[in-house]
C-alpha cells in the first residue's frame, strides 16, 4: 500500500519544482525583453549620432577657422586664413566688379585721371577685404553654432539612453532576483509543509499504515 506521507512529500516537491520552473521562465522572458530594449536604445542612439555627426564635424571645423581668423591659433594660422580670403574667388570677383564700376563712372564724368579716382581705387580693395573677413567670421559663427547645438543634441540623447539602459538593467536584475526568491520560497514552503506533516504525525493527526514507516519507500 502506498505510503501517504511519501505521497504528500512528493506532491509538495513536485509543486515546488513547477513553481520554480515557472519563475525561471518568467525571469528569462523579462530578462530577454529588457535586453532587447537595451539593444534598441543603443541602436537608436547610434542612428541619431550618425545623423548629427556631419553637423558636429562641420561646426568643429568652422570654430577652428574662427580661431584662426581671430589670431587665437597664432600669427601663422591667422595669416593663412586672411590670405585664403584675399586670394579667394569671392574677393577677386567683388574687386573686379567694383573697380570696373569706379573706372566707368570716372570715365563718364571725365575724371579718369583724377586723384579722387586713384584714391578710391586704393581704398576699395582693403575695404572689400575687411568686409569679407567680417562676413566670413560671421558665417563660420553660424556653422559653429549649428555644430554646438548638434553636439548638445547628441549629448542629451546619450544621457537619455544611459538612463533608459540603466532602468532596463535594473529590470533585469529585479527579474533574476525575483526568480531566485520565488524558487527559494517554493522549496522553503516544501520544508515548512514537511515539518508540519511530521508534527501532525507526531501528534497523531496522521497515521501510517501498519507495516510501513515514513521511510519504507526508500527501504528503511
Order of helices and strands: HHHH
Strand content: under 5%
Total domain count: 1
Categorize the overall geometry: rod-shaped
Question: Termini distance?
Answer: 15 Å
**Count of alpha and pi helical runs:** 4
Mean pLDDT: 74
Q: Give the tally of β-strands.
A: 0
Radius of gyration based on Cα positions: 42 Å
Largest sheet composition: none
Q: Approximately how much helix is present in the residues?
A: over 70%
Poorly predicted ranges: 195-199, 201-208, 212-220
Class derived from helix and strand content: mainly alpha
Describe the structure.
With 220 residues, the chain is mainly α. The protein has four helices and no strands. The two termini are 15 Å apart.
